[in-house]
Design brief:
The protein is α/β, with parallel strands linked by helices. The chain contains seven helices and 13 strands. The longest helix is centred in the first third of the chain and has 20 residues. Bound molecules: 3-methylcatechol and fe (iii) ion.
Length: 305
């Protein structure tokens, strides 16, 4: 009977370690996850058809490139931010601008410019906006030469690179702040985002009875010498979903104020010759703890080491 066993014995065999090669942390976490899944299957008496439907869904999820979308919708991205916030608090770190999730739609390599940039191509419908401000340290001192990646959705709520109908790097720029830490850019106020219909993510969210909408937002990755790189987002006020974000990423203190009817004087270099909407927002970067956290990296690049 040495190859006949019950589920407990099977779990033991799956997770036991006969050799000390491999990675101990990966082993321990895998053991925990498999143990929890075995238990879930037994507790809910999951049928084979249900199990294989789920595996099929996972395969389609991976093939669709939506793994990083489902993590946001199931709260994992915000969870990681909450845990980092709590660790900062315990370490007594002066709090800068709150972090907010990167999301799955950042790409590196956006066109670079100094001090100011134009994100829109002038042909897009939508409300003309200039966002401007200063990148500062937690004492309020300007951070000369800070690096600001900014990206947001187009008028249909879609992001360039992931949407083949848009030009490369549309609505994505990397701005170097001037001597006084100042930045500014011209763009179009983005609408909210909705998960793609008829996709693996939409399938799950229908079954969960949840919507897949994000309120209108603009993403940032900001770094400066000696400061911890900040990944955050700002929200445009007035959105239906501002307090009901599919990705749980709205944060108090990151909802901007829109100043309508701003005067074009001084904004000629951005191609502005009439009243526009202005957002003023300064970002505060914490002190870096080590060289690693100061690096200007997206989450996947950071994970790759
Ligand atoms: C987005 O635009 C986004 O920012 C996140 C977090 C998830 C899906 C789409
Ligand atoms: Fe987004």
């Amino acid at each position: 009977m040495k190859n006949e066993f019950n589920s407990e014995e099977l779990l033991r065999r799956v997770t036991e370690t006969k050799v000390s090669t491999g990675n101990e942390r990966v082993r321990s976490i895998t053991k925990r996850v498999v143990t929890d899944l075995f238990k879930t299957i037994e507790d809910f008496q999951v049928k084979p058809e249900e199990f294989w439907a789920a595996v099929q869904w996972l395969s389609r999820l991976g093939a669709s490139g939506q793994a990083g979308l489902i993590t946001a919708g199931l709260g994992f991205d915000r969870l990681l931010d909450i845990l980092e916030d709590e660790a900062d608090k315990r370490a007594g770190m002066a709090s800068g601008t709150p972090r907010a999730i990167e999301g799955p739609l950042y790409i590196a390599g956006a066109p670079k410019s100094f001090y100011e940039a134009r994100l829109d191509n002038g042909k897009m419908p939508g409300q003309l906006v200039v966002m401007e401000g200063v990148i500062r340290d937690t004492d309020g001192n300007p951070l000369s030469g800070a690096l600001i990646d900014v990206w947001h959705a187009n008028e249909n709520g879609h992001y360039s690179h992931f949407d083949p109908s848009q030009e490369e790097y549309n609505l994505r720029r990397q701005i170097t702040a001037d001597q006084q830490g100042r930045y500014r850019f011209r763009s179009i106020l983005p609408p909210g985002y909705a998960i793609p219909p008829n996709s693996p993510t939409a399938e799950l969210f229908e079954l969960l009875g949840r919507h897949g909408n994000r309120p209108a937002h603009i993403h940032f990755l900001i770094s400066a010498a000696g400061r911890r790189a900040l990944t955050t987002q700002v929200n445009i006020p007035g959105d239906t979903y501002i307090d009901d974000d599919f990705a749980f990423a709205t944060r108090d203190g990151l909802v901007v104020t829109l100043e309508t009817g701003a005067s074009p004087a001084g904004y000629e270099s951005l191609g502005i010759d009439g009243p526009f909407t202005r957002i003023r927002f300064d970002f505060k970067l914490q002190e870096a703890v080590n060289g690693e956290d100061a690096k200007h990296l997206g989450r996947y690049e950071r994970a790759a080491g």
